Amino acid sequence: MAPNEPFPAEHCRWIVPSTLRTLLEPLILVALIVAYLPRYMQTARHGTSGISSRWILWLCLASNMQLASRLAAMRGWYGVQCILWPPGPPIREPFWFHVFGILLPYIEVAVQWVCAMILSV
């Protein structure tokens, strides 16, 4: 199948997450940011004197690898195909909701990467 041909509808049905999952997953973003707040506050108060440089190195490496693996995953390309060339008849929910559901894992990894990079600076 050429990259610009639409996918059959059955491919996009298993890529689009459920409505419940799409509504609950943004809570992970909030939890992720809240989890980094104590480390940011400690760094603001005491500087980097209590943080291991190895911990920061591993955190940055893990975040980079997670972001790279998410971007290189073929399933992600399938999701992009479903966004760019939606197949078949319209789906019950609004299209933007499905786009948000497909892109949410990438947004989560990007937020974690940004949080880790803020600590490394």
Automatic annotation (TrEMBL):
<feature type="transmembrane region" description="Helical">
    <location>
        <begin position="95"/>
        <end position="119"/>
    </location>
</feature>
<feature type="transmembrane region" description="Helical">
    <location>
        <begin position="14"/>
        <end position="35"/>
    </location>
</feature>
<keyword id="KW-1133">Transmembrane helix</keyword>
<keyword id="KW-0812">Transmembrane</keyword>
<feature type="transmembrane region" description="Helical">
    <location>
        <begin position="55"/>
        <end position="75"/>
    </location>
</feature>
<keyword id="KW-0472">Membrane</keyword>
<protein>
    <submittedName>
        <fullName>Uncharacterized protein</fullName>
    </submittedName>
</protein>
